[in-house]
Design goal:
By secondary structure, the protein is of the alpha/beta class. It has three domains: about 280 residues, TIM Barrel (Alpha-Beta Barrel); about 80 residues, no CATH class; about 140 residues, Double Stranded RNA Binding Domain (2-Layer Sandwich), CATH 3.30.160. The strands form five sheets. An eight-stranded parallel β-barrel has the order 1-2-5-6-7-8-9-10, surrounded by nine helices. The protein has a three-stranded antiparallel beta sheet with strand order 13-14-15. β5, α3 and β6 form a beta-alpha-beta unit. α1 runs parallel beside α2, α5 runs parallel beside α6 and α7 packs parallel to α8. The chain is elongated and about 100 Å long.
Length: about 550
């Protein structure tokens, strides 16, 4: 293996499962392990076999299947190493070996704390006793398995001179990988990187082992610390999908992998990860653990390739590299998404409408943008379904003979549903109507009828949610037919038809987050179609003041 290859050691199934509430069943662990193998992970830490009989069975199952040399009778070039964690005790190490030995490439990972605070309060052991335990238990593990990893727990707070001694003892006893854990996420990147550099310079026999790093995220520095370790010679990095793990979690696999991939020209380092699978595996782990991925999570978060700012959207439409340092398809994400919200600009709206089939420019675009902003003030995010409903409601409608200005409804189990509407006609005159009904929509329609004065029959009324969420946009569709009597009404609508003409049907749509307002808009849209058929101003049709 070349010196520019960084091994990816995934501990999602071990340290990741230690996240509160993230316990996985054996079947779920196997499914995740298979996904990690397909992803190209070098080492899968399948669990802590001494923790429980179920954990042991899960590790064995993964070793027998994911770690097998043959799958469905076909030989694999190099299955992932299957690793089991063990404290520096004979019992733990035996259990770990029992768990991983079915694998083609098994590994035992044993550890003991080395920092002063752990030696004094947790282990109650002296330096000499800790060193003796390292020699004894690493040697015992080596008698069972060729591939041994040793970790000095809390290495980030261990005295450097003692850390050198502990690592040298592990190498002498047969360790092939030395993992340096920042167990409590205490160190800063420059400190941790320096620690790895000094280990390479001061530990006898260090050339016989691979140096690994395992960083926790208590100060939000796990990825930075791991990269600092890699830049100072570490060639294995211990990570977890989505960064899950004890307390604030571990270094996120996807962040390390994409940092090395994106900056390959500068760093000259590589991994064996198939990056287009990252998003899918992230979602799988989120599903089986029940831990959601925060929207602003790097690489795999919902907002990782989403842009709402008008300035950013304009730049993205001109050249994606203005605001994206990697392509979404490289991590298996959906295409770049320009999120339409109140911060979006006219250019982004025009582009999205064009994709949906609406070609708007000049005054029409300005009008559309004004309608869009009105909706954006009510909803945090505008979806494609919102836009389709919004512009079906507005841009394709005929001239507005009547326009809704204000609407107030009082309804409930006590009293009569009452609606008050304020409407402006095409002459600019404002009309106020109040009425009661069997429900809020009935009251609104009657109040509108009282203003417009065109008797008609409501043939159809339907309401549906065109988007998801508590702030979903509701779409209302109505179909109306003008009454055929008295004759004067028919004549006013279309005089040439006469009394015997069959009254046509007119439809209207309305879209709003408030379905009562959407209902009023839909009803007025249908009435406006009816009035447009006569090609007369509303004032000429006997509208009552």
């Amino acid at each position: 293996m070349s010196n520019n290859h960084v091994r990816i050691f995934d501990t999602t199934l071990r340290d990741g499962e230690q996240s509160p509430g993230a316990t996985m069943t054996s079947a779920e662990k196997l499914e995740v392990a298979k996904a990690l193998s397909r992803l190209g992970v070098d080492v899968i830490e399948a669990g802590f076999p001494a923790a429980s009989p179920d954990d042991l069975r899960a590790v064995q199952n993964i070793a027998e299947t994911v770690g097998a040399k043959l799958i469905d009778g076909r030989k694999r070039e190099e299955p992932p190493i299957i690793c089991g964690l063990a404290r520096a005790t004979e019992g733990d190490i035996r259990k770990a070996w029992e768990g991983v030995k079915p694998a083609a490439r098994p590994r035992i990972h044993t550890f003991i704390a080395t920092s002063p605070i752990h030696r004094e309060y947790k282990l109650r052991m002296s330096r000499e006793e800790v060193l003796a335990k390292i020699r004894e238990m690493v040697s015992f593990a080596k008698s069972l398995c060729d591939d041994i990893e040793f970790s000095p727990e809390d290495a980030g707070r261990t005295e450097m001179d003692f850390l050198y001694e502990a690592l040298a003892a592990a190498i002498e006893a047969g360790a092939t990988t030395l993992n340096i854990p920042d167990t409590v996420g205490y160190t800063l990147p420059h400190e941790f990187g320096e620690r790895i550099r000094l280990i390479h310079e001061n530990v006898p026999g260090i050339d016989k082992a691979i140096v690994s790093v395992h960083c926790h995220n208590d100060l939000g520095l796990a990825t930075a610390n791991s990269l600092a370790g890699i830049l100072n010679g570490a060639r294995q990095v211990e990570v977890a999908i989505n960064g899950i793990g004890e307390r604030a979690g571990n270094t996120a696999l996807e962040e390390i992998v994409m940092a090395l991939e994106t900056r390959k020209a500068l760093l000259g380092l590589e991994t064996g990860i198939d990056t287009p699978q990252l998003t899918r595996v992230s979602r799988l782990v989120s599903t089986v653990t029940g831990i959601p991925v925060q929207p602003n999570k790097a690489i795999v978060g919902a907002n990782a390739f989403a842009h709402e700012s008008g300035i950013h959207q304009d730049g993205m439409l001109k050249n994606q590299e203005t605001y994206e340092i990697m392509r979404p398809e490289t991590v298996g994400a959906e295409k770049t998404h320009l999120v339409l919200g109140k911060h979006s600009g006219k250019h982004a709206l025009q582009n999205r409408l064009a994709e949906l089939g609406y070609t708007l420019e000049g005054e029409a675009l300005a009008t559309a943008f004004e309608r869009f902003k009105d909706l954006a003030d009510k909803k945090k995010v505008i979806t494609d379904a919102d836009l389709i409903a919004l512009f079906k409601d507005g841009l394709t409608e005929p001239k507005e003979h009547f326009r809704l200005v204000d609407l107030q409804v009082v309804c409930g189990s006590m009293g009569l549903p009452t609606a008050t509407v304020r409407i402006v006609d095409d002459s600019g005159e404002t009309h106020l109507g109040v009425n009661v009904g069997t429900g809020p929509v009935d009251a609104v329609f009657k109040a509108i009828d009282g203003i417009v004065g065109l008797p008609c029959t409501l043939l159809e009324y339907s309401v549906s949610s065109v988007t998801r969420g508590i702030d979903a946009l509701g779409e209302v569709s109505v179909r109306i037919q003008p009454e055929q009597s008295p004759a004067s009404v028919q004549q006013r609508i279309n005089p040439q038809h006469g009394e015997s003409a069959r009254a046509p049907v007119y439809h209207g749509h309305g879209a709003e987050t408030d379905i009562i307002v959407a209902s009023a808009k839909a009803y007025l849209a249908a009435l406006n179609r009816l009035l447009s058929a006569s090609d007369r101003p509303a004032a000429a049709l006997g509208v009552e003041a």
